[in-house]
Design goal:
Number of helices: 9
Strand content: 35-45%
CATH class of the largest domain: Alpha Beta
Oligomer: single chain
Number of strands: 21
Length: 349
């Protein structure tokens, strides 16, 4: 059973630490990813995402902790395998294609130590990424999305144990980004690849992967599937980072919390003073009589939806996410209720 479990692990980090001078860039990162799964390393700028990726790739040495890839320890107190020995494919933010090489030559470059037929492998991966027939093109003749797929083909060509992608969609315009990331996800699925994305974009992370690891101040605060991470953030810091979040004070007893919006059901047992997390899509508002003390204070219209800010009798302001068909006016009296159970966090003293 143990051997079977070990063989199913794509990558494992145990208490990995990296300091630059007195600055702790990575402060004890631990995570595990099964073979064939996709994981996003998500967090604000400066949280240690790219440093963690560089440690996994072998571009930096760990100060403490261990890294295993495909069951092999590649980094630890007395070991540091160089990048070329780690069976890791890398897709950089700027793609890093060689401008003087054709598409096929770029892909073939990663096959210098490949045991099989390089020509056949180039053809296989170009077909896998939908670039067959374009093998003689030069990088400058390709669109941004095509360059992205060539970079991915080059990373996949040597059949690595792990693919690392560092902000791979940040150079694409918004419309193309959604389509290309969907294509990249499908390609990685077909290749049964184990992959780690680094991103600061929550929507990108939630829509792309099987697991999301949230890094804050060089530590993993939570690793969970996207839906669980969004609906049940481990703490207030994760909740605030993962999408829009309203917080209101309350007092909890078991699975109930009393706050300005009434008595609400909580997702977990908790007692005492708490901060209640209410996602904007769970805050339901409706028109009310002129005597209602709750009023609309701001409206941000985005086309596909709108964010309506209301002010409660206490003066606290909360955001409600609504469809585009609802029409409210600034100053309009409304009533508010919460749909579904909420998360509550012990209030920091």
């Amino acid at each position: 059973m143990g051997a079977q479990h070990e063989s199913s692990v794509g990558i494992r980090l145990r208490e990995v630490v990296k300091h630059f001078g007195r600055v702790g860039a990575v402060n004890g990162v631990s995570l595990e990813l099964a073979r064939g799964q996709l994981l996003a390393l998500l967090g604000p700028s400066g949280c240690g995402k790219t440093t963690t990726l560089r440690l996994i790739a072998g571009f930096e040495r760990v100060d403490a902790g261990t890294i295993e890839i495909g069951g092999q320890v590649v980094a630890g107190p007395r070991i540091h395998l160089p990048p070329e020995k780690r069976r890791v494919g890398m897709v950089f933010q700027e793609y890093a294609l060689f401008p003087h090489m054709t598409v096929a030559e770029n892909v073939r470059f990663g096959l210098q130590n490949y045991a099989g037929d390089p020509g056949r492998r180039v053809a296989e991966v170009l077909e896998m990424v939908g670039m067959q027939g374009l093998d003689a093109r030069m990088p400058h003749e390709l669109s941004g999305g095509q360059q992205q797929r060539v970079a991915l083909a080059r990373a996949l060509a040597p059949e690595p144990d792990l693919i690392l992608l560092d902000e791979p969609f940040s150079n694409l315009d918004a419309g193309l980004r959604v389509r290309v990331r969907s294509e990249v996800r499908a390609i990685l699925r077909r290749a049964n690849a184990t992959a780690i994305f680094v991103t600061h974009d929550q929507e990108e992370a939630l829509s792309l992967v099987d697991q999301v690891a949230v890094l804050i101040d060089g530590r993993v605060r939570q690793v969970a599937p996207p839906q669980q991470l969004y609906r049940q953030p481990a703490d207030r810091a994760v909740a605030e980072f993962m999408g829009d979040a309203n917080f209101t004070p309350g007092v909890a007893t078991g699975r109930r919390v009393e706050c300005e919006l009434g008595v609400l059901e909580t997702q977990t047992d908790i007692s005492g003073p708490v901060d209640v997390l209410i996602r904007p899509e769970n805050l339901i508002i409706a028109p009310a009589g002129a005597d209602s003390p709750t009023r609309v204070r701001n409206i941000l219209f985005f086309g596909h939806d709108q964010l309506v800010t209301i002010e409660l009798p206490s003066g606290r302001r909360l955001d409600a996410r609504m469809g585009p068909a609802y029409h409210y006016a600034i100053g309009q009296p409304v009533q508010a209720r919460v749909d579904g159970p909420v998360m509550a966090y012990a209030r920091e003293s």
